[in-house]
# Entry
Amino acid sequence: MDQAKVQQILNWPPPRNIKALQSFLGFSNFYRRFIKNYSKKISSLTSFLKKYSHFHLNEEALRQFHQLKDAFTISPILSHFDPSLPTIVETDESDYALGAVLSQISDSENSPIAFDSRMLLPSELNYEIHDNKLLGIVWALKRWRAFLLSLSSSFEVLTDHSSPQYFMSSKILTC
# Structure
């Protein structure tokens, strides 16, 4: 990103009303694929956008605002996708968001290709942990389906929980 744009982002004042918050989130949303755990970083800010929500930036929201601004100054080195390289899909789920990283191993180094994240829907907030983990995997695989289908070999899925192993080892799946 151009240094002049980065400086403008760093000078962006904290939002004083909903319109200013919407403007900042709209801008930052354009760059979400370059910011790891984007949805986690905006969770407190998006809560002000709900209907009948009172706008008042608390310390947590202000901290997230500044963290998001700082994320623009730290540009991750994203690599180009190569279908011949070993590929890894890493997923991470929290109580309110899903996150994923598509990466490839080149020169014995794990290089990120893309980041993505999204907030959980209200109905998904009620999911059990193992269902939430599986949701994260399915969502990431759908998100990067085109990349994964072009691979010349298989890919690896990494998650921080062992419950998805049950789904892979179950002999009889019921509907």
Remarks:
- The mean pLDDT is 83.
- The first strand starts at residue 87 and ends at 93.
